[in-house]
Amino acid sequence: MSSGLHWLGVLFTALWLTSPVTAAPVPLPNAKYEQPTIVFQTQHGQKFLDSAKKYVKLNGGTPEMVTRIDDLLKGLLGEKGFAGLDLTRPFGGYVYLRAKVETSYMVLVLPITNEKDALELVERIHLEAKITKVKSVYELGGGPFARDLTGHIRFHDKHAYVAIHAKPVEENDAIDALGATEKLIPIARLVDDKETAVLAATLTGKRIPKGLTDEAYPLFDSANADVDRLMVRAPAGMPKNFPPFIKELLGWGRRSYDLMIADGDTLGLRITFDEKMGDLDAEAILTPTAKSGLAQDLASFTPAKGRFQQLVTKDSVGGGWLVVPGPIPKGVRATFANFIAEWIPMLQKETALPAEFLPLFDTMASIAQKAITAGEIDLGAAVSGPNKAGHYTVVAGLGLDDPTPLVKLVLGLAKDLPKEFVEAIKLNAYKIGDVSAHTFALDKLLPEDFLKIFGEKPALNIAVGNKGLFLAVGPGAEVELKRALALKPLEATAFDIVVNLAKGKELVKSAGGNLRELEQFPVPDRAISFYSVDIRGGKDLRVRGASGQLTLMMLMSGLTAAGR
Questions:
Q1: Which of 13, 156, 294, 412 could form a disulfide with 263 if both were Cys (CB 3.0 to 4.6 A apart)?
Q2: What pTM value is reported for the model?
Q3: Chain centroid, CA 269 distance in Å
Q4: How far apart are CA 28 and CA 58, in angstroms?
């Protein structure tokens, strides 16, 4: 087995260097054409358009928003729309990466109805196609092909093969990609009919030129030099333990990159649309070479387990959680823990709390440092409501291996705080099983807007026990604390933010907030994952990011900008 488990760093460097495209490999048999570095395919055009519209609807989009998509396409393509393309067949393509990255190029393989209509489509999107010296190969002009790119088209087997090079490029090199039909990869070798992803692509590691992979090392060296300068002379206000953490992180990234180059077989990407939940999922898949050190590392990977993701339910206004999965190198954990332990006490200086609270920040810093060093991070929070009176409840939990120091500190602080704080504290206000809950009255400390949310006499409810720190405020605080204390560890995604925008809009309104920014976006009345990350090991490493409202907001903002 390789020294240390580098799976997360491997993925970090792999995604950093190859993020433009990358899913399950498509087998390519021996042929006269050169084996490409990357292959990819998409759904057929009509299904892609239908999925985009369904995505908008499932995330609360109005008919007007769907119409806006049609109007934008009509503005780009004219009344004939996609005439010339066959939207009933999937698209494909491939990429050749070269040691000199500027000589790399991509070939799109697009299904067409016939050559004449396809050339008319080229004209409708304000491009030019003129015949070259080589029969049947057209050169593209206009748009990006007048500035940054060189494009050529050849029609073959009811498809348009579009070769795209960066400028400058020799004409012979550009035409060579399309000049002989035996060099064109058949669409059947690029497309898997069983694939359901919106986009699926595969990068084959052994086909990346060594000269290209070596270009990453100067980037690591430059970043390290920048960090070395920070370690000598850091900007004012920067924690002194931050540069050492970045230094350790870069070292992990470099070691992981070496391991990926040596043991990585393929890196894939699948973008899928969940028609039930309305999520757009992007899953990166790193497959190691069989029986390699990386393969053994991934086989030993265990999924994350946490408790506080369960605080968020389908009825929540919103919430989120973070559970650190799997082993991270000790050096990275230790330097990050040192940075956090230094940074948390610095926060006290930015608050209006009296100096007597500084020991609380110091203790929290010590607890965080211990948890991070041990690789155990489990935290989450959720907002529920409104109740019949229109008020909301917030509950939060943080995993603590040993909460005893925090309990002793809180009890000690209660004796020495200023009078207005002492009067607000009620120790041992009630019991939840064997755990004591304490309350801290907030009605005289919070602004009026907060009282509109939590009620006229809100109190912060605090419980420390059952290996955790539990906080709740609002009319349902005691009930939520009881629920949180009873949670058992379950397998969890690493990170998620869940929002019900319809309920969130009402919460903002009840607090007298400005709704202008929310008005342009759909607000479905159901909990939707704004963005989540899931990490799984085994025979390969899979990292999945799911986006619901986040991607839709970006899409609608883009459509709004395009329509101006």
A1: 294
A2: 0.78
A3: 13
A4: 38
